[in-house]
Amino acid sequence: MGYHLRPVDSRSSQPTCRYAAGLPFAGTRRLAEHDRRWIERRLRRWMAGVGLSVVGLAGIVAGSFTLAEHAPRVGRLLHGGLGITVVTLGGVGVLGCLVARGWWRRLAMAGAGYLVGVGAAHAWLPRLAQPSWLTAEVLVATTVLGLSYLGLGLARRARLLRLVPRIRTDLAQGTLERFEGTPSGPPDVALARLRGRESSGRSVPVRLDVLPRSGLVVRFGGRRVERWEAAHMARVASAQPHALRVELPQGVAPKAPDPGLCLKRRSLTPHERAELARHIARLRRRWWPVVALTVVIVALVGWDLRTAAPERPLPLDGVSLGWLALLVVVYVGYGRRMLAARKLEHDRSLRWVVTVHQVAADPQRDPPSLEVLPISQLAWTERASPAGWRLSRL
């Protein structure tokens, strides 16, 4: 079964274009029966794995509180069943870090190696034992590392779990879509994970076969994708490379423009203004991670204050101060999102973009090399292709 290919042309009369992981839409075909059965088997196994994870999590919580009740000394040491639960989940997360790649593994190996070394020194050479406060800090930091890894893994599973109804709808419809092209900017997160250690050069063309509603990647470069990976699906307004352009308003054009460039402006189409409205709403919608992180960090800092040893010189330890610093960074990032949304709102109200054209180019045949939103100063198109931020999750 071949694909029904559609040529990717920026001058297409289509009002919008679809992208997956930053790659343009190239065609559709019927989902092969063997691919359908393979996805259904994977889906059943994955759902069974999610069920086992829930059972395991419930077992850890129940076992931790039971241990705190039957072993009061351990319960007092780890501040009850909740503390035992946190430490146990952190240990599970550290084990996951050790089999992961990159900084997760390096940090987990450093923390676990230090703790094992301290335990061995305390057992065999007590005089070489490190200060108890340093050991406590490393233990807490390693536990937080494991909890972070475990939390991100659970969040990814939750996102995929929300896609299950869409995956079933895709399987019922039986359509597969191809997205193909050469990434023009930093690779999408899903695309980078699929490439792994392969070359990430921009000159290498990439092909994805995905289910249209869920974005589930079925094939990458013609090969089946064994891990669950959902590509970000984006619908953007088509470029207008040959739209009417007029002179910039007075006070907007630079006083000493580059003699090799021609700066003008063109009006945004209704579809482009609708796309801007979607970006603005998406930027303002991501408030819940800030609230959730605030609740978690306040609870952790409060727990640290409540369980602090009387002889500790500072009320907060280094890990709690690190969490508070992270919260400040998150609030700064959220503030930047709100500022970006406000600027895009002004761009939408102005209803035009600045076009940058080479003077030596033919305006009848060559598209503008760049289009820029006047208030936010964000690139809108680059050589008649949408700028990378328009295709990302924001």
Tell me what the structure shows.
The protein contains nine helices and 13 strands. With 394 residues, it is of the alpha+beta class. It folds into four domains: 1-30 and 174-238, no CATH class; 32-169, no CATH class; 239-268 and 351-394; 271-345. The protein is globular, with a radius of gyration of 27 Å. Residues 7-12 have low confidence and may be disordered.
Topology summary:
Blueprint lengths: L3 E2 L10 E5 L2 E8 L2 H38 L1 H6 L2 H20 L3 H22 L7 H42 L1 E7 L7 H7 L10 E5 L6 E4 L2 E2 L8 E5 L23 E7 L2 H16 L2 H19 L11 H33 L1 E7 L11 E3 L6 E4 L2 E2 L8
Antiparallel strand pairs: 1-3, 2-3, 2-8, 3-4, 4-5, 5-6, 6-7, 9-10, 10-11, 11-12, 12-13
Helix pairs in contact: 1-3, 1-5, 3-4, 3-5, 4-5, 7-9, 8-9
* N to C succession of SSEs: EEEHHHHHEHEEEEEHHHEEEE
Uncertain segments of ≥5 residues (pLDDT<50)?
A: 7-12
- Proportion of strand residues: 15-25%
Total number of beta strands: 13
Largest sheet: 8 strands, antiparallel
Q: Rg from C-alpha positions?
A: 27 Å
Overall, the morphology is: globular
Number of domains: 4
Distance between the termini: 36 Å
Helical fraction: 40-55%
User: Mean pLDDT, rounded to whole units?
Assistant: 83
- If helices are DSSP runs of H or I spanning 4 or more residues, what is the number of helices? 9
The assigned structural class equals: alpha+beta
